[in-house]
Sequence to fold (200 residues):
Amino acid sequence: MKTLVLTAHPDLDNSRINRLWFDALSETGEITTRDLTATGGETMRFDVEAEQALLLAHDRIVFQFPFYWYSAPPVLKAWMDQVLSFGFAYGPGGDRLAGREFLILVSTGGPADSYHAGGYNSFSMDELLKPYQQMAILTGMTYLRPFVQHGLAVAEDAGLAESVRSMLAHVTDPELDPKVKHSRILREIEEQEKQVASVA
Ligand SMILES: Cc1cc2nc3c(=O)[nH]c(=O)nc-3n(C[C@H](O)[C@H](O)[C@H](O)COP(=O)(O)O)c2cc1C
Fold:
């Protein structure tokens, strides 16, 4: 499983959690990380062919960002608008991303209980991330369960190390796609039944 993490933070050096995530992901040595702010520069212009080639070389595509006004920082939108182009990601012949997995890693300032009906953010993260889910559907990618770290507005530094551990476990979990998990469980059941039959 080759994983590509595209990090969209306007000021990674002054970030608390996304910097830690980015560094931990880079240090695995097995995951390709890309700082979109550094890559796109002030004009947020991307080398579309290079970005698309990178996507094609990976099986799991990850967007990592802090939640800004219920969305991602603008550099991610600029990257999407340029790179997920007609004839590549959608439209006639635009099936180049089909079959890959797509995952979101996101941090929020607001606490978990605010992201519910009746909470001050009213909607769940699953609801607020729908445009990304639909992007995955349109491009033929499998949308995986997002990793959400809430409460950065009040989080203690001590809790951040645990966030890094859980995030790494999530990103490297080969069974995030429930179809993959179910087929492994079915194989194990089949194997157990064969063993019971051979003993009987
Ligand atoms: C411009 C801006 C918009 C933000 N919008 C939201 C928001 O809509 N919901 C929320 O929970 N937090 C919001 N926040 C808080 C950030 O999500 C939080 O600071 C970030 O996840 C922390 O990550 P970092 O330490 O990597 O910067 C916003 C922060 C900024 C600067």
